[in-house]
Amino acid sequence: MTLGRRTCALATGVASGYYRRLEAEADMPRYYLVDDGIHMPRWCQLAAGPDGSFWIDFKARRIPYDDGQPLAHVEGEDMMTTVDGVPDEIAELERSYAFERLLDPWSDQGWIAPDGKFWGCSFYVHDDIAYALLRKHPAALEHQGWVRVHADSFRTDETFRRITKRQEATLLALGFPDAVPGSGGVRRFAEPDRNAPPPRYAVRRPAGMNRIQAAPPAVARPNDALTRLAERLCECPELATLFGLPFEAIPEVGPGTWDWMLRWDEVDLGGEEPAAWLLEAEGLHLRATSFNTVEVAPWPEPGIHVEASTAALLPARAARRSA
């Protein structure tokens, strides 16, 4: 099918070798919705390197060629404007996967709509569920009055819209004592019984929607690489106090943006690239992505480079924990 200067097609059931030939015939860049069987399908381009072909998304996350199954493809001038305008059947396909692999009605994190309905999700998946399920940019949701809920805080764009009474009720049910953004650290949330029905305020998968074949359980990765990465990070002076406290090493975060995570009570370190890749990087770069999450990324210069705002955050969090 054709949309202006874009061509779009569902691609299920096509032999994987077909896409190498398709790339050679493309008039414009071609983007593929690729399923690795575990995470939410990602929009990727087909690329090649010394070790062969692979799928790579706009955040530079890679899927080996043979591990990815394209579900649909679009052709256009750039990725964001192209995939934002996909036909309804492709958008509905993304929503189906998002309902199954991203939506978590029992979660304590997610989005609260102005009508009070809670769209729960896993850690660090807010943007994915906004794009794939709600079909909105995260900033647009906040502008329209949606509340973004994290483990111990929430936020919304109150410049344009105030929190509604129904949103207040949902925040109370989620364990927040009041509806004042930034009142973190006082939340009370008990993990719900996942064998019981989801809370009444939570959105769940629509009845009658066809289920996608369940994703196979993720294979536990050896955490040797993550252990060695933690040892490398421990050498950084800005992290010395933090690594003096107990922490949990999580080699597989699950669906979402981060691949792995080191978790303390007050702060989380994680990265999109596998720990084994970061071990081979010339250097590492640490950047705070929120008040309690710090992302680790490869850096072209030797050493561990910590942004000034992040360097100020880490000792304060560690001191608060040890006090």
Compact overview of the structure:
The chain has helices at 18-25, 79-84, 88-101, 126-132, 138-143, 165-173, 224-234, 240-243, 275-280, 308-322; strands at 2-3, 6-10, 30-35, 42-49, 52-57, 62-64, 69-75, 110-112, 118-120, 147-149, 154-155, 248-250, 260-263, 268-271, 283-290, 293-299, 303-306. The chain has 323 residues and is an alpha+beta fold.
Gap between N and C termini: 62 Å
Quaternary arrangement of the chains shown?
Answer: single chain
Structural class: alpha+beta
Alpha carbon gyration radius = 21 Å
- Portion of residues in beta strands equals 15-25%
Overall 3D form? globular
Number of domains: 3
Main pleated-sheet profile: 7 strands, antiparallel
**Can you write the helix and strand succession as a string?**
EEHEEEEEHHEEHHEEHHHEEEHEEEH
Low-confidence stretches: 1-7, 12-16, 214-222, 318-323
Mean pLDDT level: 79
Helix content: 25-40%
Spatially, the strands of the biggest sheet line up as 1-2-7-3-4-5-6
Q: What is the count of DSSP helices, taking H or I runs of 4+ residues?
A: 10
Structure report:
With 323 residues, this protein is α+β, with helices and mostly antiparallel strands. The chain contains ten helices and 17 strands. It has helices at residues 18-25, 79-84, 88-101, 126-132, 138-143, 165-173, 224-234, 240-243, 275-280, 308-322; strands at residues 2-3, 6-10, 30-35, 42-49, 52-57, 62-64, 69-75, 110-112, 118-120, 147-149, 154-155, 248-250, 260-263, 268-271, 283-290, 293-299, 303-306. Strands 1-2-7-3-4-5-6 form a seven-stranded antiparallel beta sheet. A hairpin with a 2-residue loop joins strand 4 and strand 5 (52-57). The chain starts with a strand and ends with a helix.
